[in-house]
Amino acid sequence: MPTTVLTRGPVQAAERSPAPDLARGFMLLLIAIANTPFYLWGREMNPGASHPLDGSAADKVADFLIITLVDLRTYPMFAFLFGYGMMQLYNRQVASGTSDAAATRLLQKRNWLLLAFGAVHAALLWMGDVLGAYGLAGLLVVWLFFKAKDVTLIVWTWVFGAVLAAVTALAVIGAYFTAQIPADDAEAQAIAADFAPTTDSMATTSYLDSVVERLGYWATGTVVQGVLMLVVPMMLLLAFWAGRRRILENPGEHLPLLRRVAVVGITVGWLGPLPSALDHIGAIGVPDHAAWVFWVVQIFTGFFGGLGYVALFGLIGHRIAQRRTGAPSRNLLVTDGPFAGAVQAVGKRSLTSYLLQSVLCAPILAAWGFGLGEHLTSWSMLLFAVLVWALTVAFAVWQERTGRRGPAEVLLRRLVYGRPVQAPVQT
After folding, report:
1. Radius of gyration, CA atoms only, the chain
2. d(Cα 136, Cα 108) in Å, to the nearest integer?
3. Which of the four, 117, 179, 351, 387, has the lowest number of CB atoms within 10 Å?
């Protein structure tokens, strides 16, 4: 039997780079915002965007900003950071003497556990869980590509990207012809209904019934979002390539690349959703039964937006690292300032903070809980999301000050690594 002995444990505080944790911490705010429309149950939703059709001027402004800046941009970024973290984990294990096979098995064990965490998360609280999608994609991509050459990673990223671009082009053409169907035609109405987002698990008053609804939605979403949409596999492949070059650990050595990716990625990522946002607020008119094309365009341009956000936080992380003087303190709030340190504290506990969002949202907003989601609107829900994120920041800062790890991270690490690794005695 091949050995599975690990020669070191999880990453230590002094080994962490600011850029990935900054990105994770801030993106958790955007994830909270992106999830909010699905808690607004009991109203008609736009089939081309996950937002209510009715609303005040303030609601429309909130929807416009979320569609343009947030929707389908956060999960690609987290996919990249997830893949980058896998390469960091692998590199640390191999550098410390763990065998290549044992380090790879460790990655796959972690991916299986994330899939299990996602299933439990979905069953208990949140139908839109992404942990399962990352875990499933991680299992497949590590199996197929983790040991591949750099050129292979890049070629397959281009192949997947070309497929997604072709699907997007065909969708735009198909939507044009779909729009020619009379709006009162039964077929047209059926098309619109098929693409309208569902909030069924939020609207049911029975918690047990909501579990069934959530798990059904999650199982489909895990396969579609994690594999079939291609964005997560593409991000993982690029993350493996970037992780081998330690781009986010040493952003100062890759500034031209990071700047180009940030500018191009964010530009495409913000321009791509504009037609959907303009249609949602009524500035342009696209028939509801053709609005499904906006989902496809959002997926394609979301890849660029997510990559641009990663590069942007790489640049910000470089600036923060430059301000550090002397030996790094164990306290991020001291070395990097209160705001940057607080955001990094959340990023260090991203799994805990992500799950905590659902704990703070679902029981309060869902019909099986207090049912507040029926009474909020887009702008008030946006404020609620910011408040939820702020509470996770406060929790993470308290843990950082007291030297504690996030409870979800502790559990995952214990399941992945077993008993803590003891340092060898020096003689």
Report:
1. 22
2. 10
3. 387
**Tokens, residue 231:** 């964005």
Return all residues near 95 (Cβ < 8 A) that are at least 6 apart: none
Which residue, chain included where needed, has tokens 């003891």? 422
Summarize pLDDT for 391-406 with one digit per residue, the tens.
999 999 999 999 899 9
What does the pLDDT read at residue 13?
46
Report the sign of the C-alpha dihedral through residues 391, 305, 24, 224, in that order. positive
Scanning the structure block, which residue is given the tokens 């903070």? 353
Per-residue b or e along 50-70, where b marks 16 or more CB atoms closer than 10 Å to that residue's CB = bbbeebeeebbebbbebbbbb
What is the Cα–Cα distance from 55 to 67, expressed in whole angstroms? Answer: 15
Alpha carbon dihedral 284, 173, 230, 37, in 10-degree steps, equals 20
Greatest CA span in the chain, whole angstroms?
Answer: 83
What's the sign of the alpha-carbon dihedral 237, 223, 88, 34?
positive
Q: Which two tokens stand for residue 208?
A: 């047990």
Strand-pairing partners, residue 52, are 45
Q: What is the pLDDT of residues 273-288, one digit of tens each?
A: 999 999 999 898 888 7
- Cβ–Cβ under 8 Å, residues 336 and 323: yes
Would you give the DSSP letter of residue 284? S
Contact 348, 396 (CB under 8 A): yes
Amino acid at 128: G
